[in-house]
C-alpha cells in the first residue's frame, strides 16, 4: 500500500467545498460540504509519515494522526475511526471546531517544507461522519458494572469526556447541569455554522445509551449543595467551565445595547433550537443594526459571523493588536472577511456615547501602537495620543474573554481552594481539589481555553478518579 502515500509532491492541500459567502450569510448551516470519499483519501495520501510527527506532538490529545491518515488513504475507514476515537472522545466535534491552523496543521512537517499542510481536520471529520453513517459508533459497554458512583457537575466537553471514560470502566455516572440541555458550550456557545447542534445531541444520546444518567435544571449551590452531592457519590468532578464575562473599564460601558458575548450567542443558539427568547429590549438581535464586536478571539469571530447572519446593517470587529497577534483562528478571520465583516486593527474603545435615551450610539476609540514584546512574547499595546475616532454602533458585543465564577461562594464551600485567578486549585498528580474526593478539570482549572484541551483534561481526570476509586475499594475490602 506504499503507493497510496507520500503524495504531497504531486497533490496540493484541499478542503471540502465551501458554500459561497452570499449563500451562507443567509442561514446558520455549516459552511463546509462533506468531503467526497475520493477527495478525503487523496488528501490523506499526502501525509509524509514523518519520523517525528509534529502534528501529533502539537495535538493536546496526542492523536495518532499519521496512523489514521494512512488508513484513510488506503480506504480502511473503520480502522481509521478506531484509531482516531481511541484518543479522542469527540472526533466529529474536534474535526469541526479545533483551530487546526494553530495546532496539528500549523505544525505539519510538509507545511514547514513548503508543500502545504494535510487538511487533517477535514479528514478527521470525514472519517467520523462516515463511522456514524455506517453504524460503527457504538455505545460503551463496560466489561463489568462497578457499584461506585460518580457525580459530574457540568456537561461541557470536559465533563462529558470524563463521564464517557468512567462509564467505560463500569462506574455509575450521573452528569448534572444547570441548563435544560446538555453539552454546555457546545450547545449554547458555539454557533451552528461551526457545529450543528444535531451533532451534539447525537453524542449526548450515545452517552445516555451507554448508561450515563443526565440531570438537567440542577444548579449546584441553589438546588443542592456540593457537599450533599459528595455524600451521594463516591467521587465528584467539577467541570463547570468559566463563563463570567470580562468587562470594559470605560465610560458608558453600562449603556443599553452593550452585551456580553455569551449572552448574545446563547440567545442566538436558543432561537435556533426553537426556544422563545426574551430579547432584553431588542439587544440580543443584530437585525438592521450597526454592530461592533470588541475582541480578537474565536468567541469574537463567532459573534461577528452570527451578527452577519442575523441581518446586521454593518459589522465591525475592534481589536487592539494586529492580525498577526490576534489569538483567534486565522481561518475564522478569513471566513468572517468573506462574509462582509470589517476588521479595525490596532484600535481599542475609549468610551461609549449614548443617543440621549440611555442607548449606545457611538464607540469612541483610539489607535494603538504595538511596542516591545511582553513576557509572553506578544507586543505590548500602547495608546497613541490624540488618535481617537468614532464608530457608529447600535449594538456592542464584549468578547474579551471569561473568568471563573466565585465557586466557593456559589457552591457554599469556603474550604474549596482557588487560585488568585479564581480557578480551582488542584493537586495536578491526582487532579483532586482541597476537598477529599472532589476533583476538577477543564477551564475551571486551566482558565478559558480550547474545547480540545477540555477533552484532554476530562480524560485525565477520569483516569485519576478511577485510581482514587479503586484504592478506596481496596481499603474498604481490607477493612471487612
Automatic annotation (TrEMBL):
Presence of keyword Nucleotide-binding: no
Coiled coil regions in record: none
SUPFAM superfamilies on file: alpha-helical ferredoxin, Nucleotide-binding domain
Keyword Lipid metabolism attributed: no
Name this polypeptide is given: NAD(P)-dependent oxidoreductase
Dihydroprymidine dehydrogenase domain segment(s): 25-135
Short name of any one Pfam family annotated for the protein: Fer4_20
InterPro entries documented for this protein: DPD_II, FAD/NAD-bd_sf, FAD/NAD-binding_dom, GltD-like, Helical_ferredxn
Keywords: 4Fe-4S, Iron, Iron-sulfur, Metal-binding, Oxidoreductase
Every FAD/NAD(P)-binding domain range: 150-458
Amino acid at each position: 500500500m506504499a503507493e497510496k502515500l507520500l503524495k504531497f509532491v504531486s497533490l496540493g492541500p484541499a478542503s471540502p467545498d465551501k458554500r459561497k459567502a452570499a449563500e451562507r450569510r443567509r442561514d446558520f448551516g455549516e459552511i463546509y460540504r462533506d468531503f467526497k470519499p475520493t477527495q478525503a483519501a487523496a488528501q490523506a495520501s499526502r501525509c509524509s509519515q514523518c519520523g517525528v510527527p509534529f502534528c501529533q506532538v502539537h495535538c493536546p490529545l496526542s492523536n495518532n494522526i499519521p496512523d489514521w491518515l494512512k488508513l484513510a488513504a488506503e480506504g480502511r475507514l473503520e480502522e481509521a475511526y478506531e484509531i482516531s476515537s481511541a484518543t479522542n472522545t469527540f472526533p466529529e466535534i474536534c474535526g469541526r471546531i479545533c483551530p487546526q491552523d494553530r495546532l496539528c496543521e500549523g505544525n505539519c512537517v510538509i507545511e514547514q517544507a513548503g508543500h502545504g499542510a494535510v487538511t487533517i481536520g477535514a479528514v478527521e471529520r470525514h472519517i467520523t461522519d462516515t463511522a456514524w453513517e455506517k453504524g460503527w459508533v457504538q455505545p460503551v459497554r463496560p466489561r463489568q458494572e462497578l457499584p461506585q458512583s460518580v457525580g459530574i457537575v457540568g456537561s461541557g466537553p470536559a465533563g462529558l469526556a470524563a463521564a464517557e471514560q468512567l462509564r467505560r470502566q463500569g462506574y455509575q455516572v450521573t452528569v448534572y447541569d444547570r441548563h435544560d440541555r446538555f453539552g454546555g458550550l457546545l450547545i449554547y456557545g458555539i454557533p451552528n455554522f461551526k457545529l450543528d447542534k444535531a451533532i451534539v445531541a447525537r453524542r449526548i444520546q450515545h452517552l445516555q445509551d451507554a448508561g450515563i444518567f443526565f440531570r438537567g435544571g440542577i444548579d449546584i449551590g441553589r438546588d443542592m449543595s456540593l457537599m450533599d452531592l459528595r455524600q451521594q457519590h463516591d467521587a465528584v468532578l467539577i467541570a463547570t467551565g468559566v463563563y463570567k464575562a470580562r468587562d470594559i473599564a470605560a465610560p458608558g460601558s453600562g449603556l443599553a445595547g452593550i452585551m456580553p458575548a455569551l449572552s448574545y450567542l446563547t440567545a442566538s443558539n436558543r432561537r435556533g433550537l426553537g426556544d422563545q427568547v426574551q430579547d432584553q429590549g431588542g439587544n440580543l438581535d443584530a437585525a438592521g443594526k450597526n454592530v461592533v464586536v470588541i475582541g480578537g478571539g474565536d468567541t469574537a469571530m463567532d459573534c461577528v459571523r452570527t451578527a452577519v447572519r442575523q441581518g446586521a446593517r454593518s459589522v465591525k470587529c475592534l481589536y487592539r493588536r494586529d492580525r498577526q497577534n490576534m489569538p483567534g483562528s486565522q481561518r475564522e478571520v478569513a471566513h468572517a472577511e468573506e462574509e462582509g465583516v470589517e476588521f479595525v486593527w490596532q484600535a481599542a474603545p475609549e468610551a461609549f456615547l449614548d443617543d440621549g435615551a440611555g442607548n449606545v450610539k457611538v464607540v469612541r476609540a483610539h489607535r494603538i501602537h504595538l511596542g516591545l514584546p511582553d513576557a509572553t512574547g506578544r507586543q505590548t499595546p500602547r495608546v497613541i495620543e490624540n488618535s481617537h475616532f468614532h464608530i457608529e454602533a447600535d449594538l456592542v458585543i464584549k468578547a474579551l474573554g471569561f473568568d471563573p465564577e466565585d465557586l466557593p461562594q456559589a457552591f457554599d464551600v469556603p474550604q474549596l481552594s482557588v487560585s488568585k485567578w479564581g480557578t480551582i486549585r488542584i493537586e495536578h498528580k491526582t487532579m483532586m481539589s482541597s476537598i477529599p474526593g472532589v476533583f476538577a478539570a477543564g477551564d475551571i482549572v486551566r482558565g478559558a481555553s480550547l474545547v480540545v484541551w477540555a477533552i484532554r483534561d476530562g480524560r485525565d481526570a477520569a483516569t485519576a478518579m478511577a485510581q482514587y476509586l479503586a484504592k478506596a475499594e481496596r481499603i474498604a475490602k481490607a477493612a471487612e
